[in-house]
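Appendix B, example 12.
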Amino acid sequence: MPELPEVEVVRRGLTGAVAGRTIARVEVLHDRPVRRHLPGPADFAAQLTGRTFIEPRRRGKYLWLPFDDGDALLAHLGMSGQFRSDESTLVDPPNTRIRFVFTDGEPELRFVDQRMFGGLSLSPGGAELPAEIAHIARDPFDPEFDHDQTVARLRRKRTGVKRALLDQQLISGIGNIYADEALWRAKLHYAKPSDRLTRKAAAGLITEATAVMQAALGEGGTSFDSLYVNVNGSSGYFERALAVYGREGLPCLRCGRPIRREPFMNRSSFRCPHCQPARGLNPGPR
């Protein structure tokens, strides 16, 4: 699933592609991406026709496209959801599921989703913040993000620190890639109990997570394959700067020891066994 930098790249691309434009027609080419709209695809298309987009918004990994009437189009990108801004004369990208045609002509907007875990839904009254994602915590790029409060909450959680970073109700936007990168920068093992972090260590970890996501945003995000691209079809290049994620067996950029990949929550964690040692992870009750 795209993480904060990738979703922010898409949000910025969508701003130029749809803000201020009015929908003339919606074509639902496959029913599954609008499955959350219970009245069905035809009603989904009818409900959106004639509405005007304003600037798209984001919280963490979650994206929505507000309308000027106070409602919003909530977008779940899932594993492979993409928005593409293309001229109508171009052949649809493979796996195009929904097409938006605008009253001012070109370009069109297409929602593409290979695996179809994502989708679009209408959120009544959701222009400011859709009710469906109101429980999601603010992310570090949010002007109202409270760094000190997040540090305190992190230190109160009784779980491994990587599990805490992935908790979108604690801090949103961080997924597997940037959690591993932040933990490497902070020299922390992913299983270290979060309630045993010093305040300095916890604050440093949040700072490193913010810094690595800011760096990724500057490179257009991380693209390992064609499942994540910007609205113009371009890929991100932060993969070249990753320190640990996806680098099993390669030398640590800090100490030269081989990077290790280990199972974690039905996925993988990457770490340097020297810089992020496992010792002292279960010291017993305090």
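The two ends are 37 Å apart (CA to CA). The chain has a mean pLDDT of 92.
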